[in-house]
């Protein structure tokens, strides 16, 4: 059975608020996907559909061509880790492991214990007594060790300090290499996580703004650096992301690809062309001004 | 090994060059296994698509080869091949910019040769 994931004309409304509007996309199985969007863009709503926590108001969500909602065959194939409220959780970390091992068919207990060690999780402590970062680490541990064909992390890093997040990213990449599966991560820590994603999906105000391979996404922008006058002349009429100036040198980041003739012109003007970051592009694309029309 | 990248050059080319450097410097010898894509992703914090793009240039050029299910290795004759490539671009990459800069500064060819002998004589710059 394949695990291609698809959203087909999905809408979600809460009362008269439309949280997701006409979402259509397909995810090939086996990739690490970044789901990006500002606060309130609809990331968590989209992921809760994917975990079958709720049913779309209209449209369908399918995995391997089968409708997902209340589908007993698919339930065990998807796991969603999110910022769970553990304030009353008297179970110990190891009880949680036992439970996960009993209801997750692919759960790898020894890998979970390896993760607990990496995160320095005390197995005998009650979960409610752990720090916020440790609680998040429990979620990551269960999420990764479940080895579900569709594994989702919804801003699961909350409360983790930087070294702990590093461990999370490293373990995620290594385990994905050993056991390829679809992993979807929602985040707004774009600059820190950009290298993890093979593909990205950007939501803006409940709509799908863009779905692209990350390398193709990064080609959507570039920086132009050189003498101020030459740079200004060259970027005239182009879509500008940001400008930095130091003395007589200006560096402008632009949105858009250049033709071969423009590359030649840049060389003739003595300008240096460079890369822009995923974060720069993300901020630009999700700014409040109305730029939805740029690209789908 | 530097962790940061030149922002004015495609990263995949820089990945390729770093692996080449390690072969030229004998940090990676022929038939040595090179780090896996995942190890490189974790080390450089660069997307695996970018890493793969750099690596496939090296595979296409016959510098490294893949053994299915085992990993990637430095090919026989890789170092020699790289040295020859580098000699081919030595003029454009080093001699030409040096001469352009020298002419800006009014340094003659004779001066350049004298300077080179001076540097060599002082044992500087790892010569």
Could you characterize the architecture of this molecule?
- Helix content of chain A is 33%, strand content 29%.
- Mean pLDDT of chain A is 92; it is low at 291-296.
- Chain A has helices spanning 43-50, 72-75, 93-103, 109-118, 132-145, 162-178, 190-193, 214-218, 228-235, 260-268, 278-285; strands at residues 5-14, 17-27, 32-36, 58-63, 66-67, 78-81, 150-154, 182-187, 199-204, 207-213, 221-227, 239-246, 249-255, 272-274.
- Chain A folds into two domains: 5-216, Rossmann fold (3-Layer(aba) Sandwich); 219-287, Alpha-Beta Plaits (2-Layer Sandwich).
- In chain A, helix 4 (109-118) packs antiparallel against helix 5 (132-145) and helix 5 runs parallel beside helix 6 (162-178).
- Chain A is built from eleven helices and 14 strands.
- In chain A, strands 6-7-8-3-9-10 form a six-stranded mixed β-sheet, with helices on both faces. A four-stranded antiparallel β-sheet of chain A has the order 2-1-4-5, with helices on one face. Chain A has a four-stranded antiparallel β-sheet with strand order 12-13-11-14, sandwiched between helices.
- Chain B folds into two domains: 11-76, Winged helix-like DNA-binding domain superfamily/Winged helix DNA-binding domain (Arc Repressor Mutant, subunit A, Orthogonal Bundle), CATH 1.10.10; 79-121.
- The longest helix of chain B is centred in the last third of the chain and has 16 residues, at 90-105.
- Chain B starts with 10 loop residues before the first helix and ends in a 6-residue tail after the last helix.
- The A-B interface holds A 169-170, 173-174, 176-177, 194-198, 213-215, 223, 225, 272-275 and B 7-11, 36-38, 41-42, 44-50, 53.
- Chain A: Keywords: ATP-binding, Nucleotide-binding.
- Chain A: GO terms for molecular function: ATP binding; ATP hydrolysis activity.
- Chain A: This is ABC transporter ATP-binding protein.
């Amino acid at each position: 059975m394949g695990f291609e994931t698809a959203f087909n004309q999905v809408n979600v409304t809460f009362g008269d608020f439309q949280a997701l509007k006409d979402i259509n996309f397909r995810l090939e199985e086996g990739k690490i996907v970044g789901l990006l969007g500002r606060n309130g863009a609809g990331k968590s709503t989209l992921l809760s559909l994917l975990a079958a926590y709720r049913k779309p108001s209209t449209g369908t969500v399918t995995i391997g061509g089968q409708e997902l909602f209340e589908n007993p065959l698919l339930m065990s194939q998807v796991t969603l880790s999110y910022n769970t409220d553990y304030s009353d959780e008297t179970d110990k970390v190891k009880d949680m492991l036992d439970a996960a091992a009993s209801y997750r068919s692919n759960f790898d207990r020894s890998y979970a214990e390896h993760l607990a060690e990496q995160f320095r999780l005390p197995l005998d402590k009650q979960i409610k007594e752990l720090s916020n970062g440790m609680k998040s680490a429990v979620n990551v541990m269960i999420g990764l060790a479940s080895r579900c064909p569709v594994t989702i992390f919804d801003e699961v890093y909350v409360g983790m300090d930087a070294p702990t997040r590093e461990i999370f990213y490293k373990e995620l990449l290594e385990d994905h290499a050993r056991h390829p599966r679809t992993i979807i991560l929602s985040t707004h820590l774009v600059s820190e996580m950009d290298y993890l994603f093979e593909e990205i999906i950007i939501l803006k105000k409940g709509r799908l703004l863009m779905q692209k391979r990350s390398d193709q996404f990064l080609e959507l922008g570039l920086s132009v650096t050189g003498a101020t006058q030459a740079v200004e002349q060259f970027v005239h009429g182009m879509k500008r992301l940001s400008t930095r100036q130091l003395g007589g040198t200006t560096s402008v980041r632009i949105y858009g690809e250049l033709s071969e003739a423009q590359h030649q012109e840049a060389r003739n003007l003595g300008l240096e062309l460079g890369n822009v970051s995923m974060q720069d592009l993300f901020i630009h694309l999700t700014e409040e001004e109305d730029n939805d029309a740029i690209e789908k | 090994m530097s962790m940061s990248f030149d922002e004015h050059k495609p990263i995949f080319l820089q990945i390729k060059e770093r692996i080449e450097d390690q072969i030229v410097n004998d940090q990676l010898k022929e038939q040595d296994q090179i780090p896996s894509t995942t190890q490189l992703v974790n080390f450089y914090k660069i997307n695996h698509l970018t890493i793969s793009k750099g690596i496939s240039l090296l595979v296409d050029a016959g510098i490294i080869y893949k053994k299915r299910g085992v990993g990637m290795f430095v090919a026989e004759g890789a170092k020699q091949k790289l040295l020859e490539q580098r000699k081919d671009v030595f003029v454009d990459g080093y001699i030409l910019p040096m001469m352009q800069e020298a002419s800006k500064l009014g340094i003659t060819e004779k001066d350049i040769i004298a300077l080179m002998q001076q540097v060599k004589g002082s044992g500087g710059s790892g010569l």
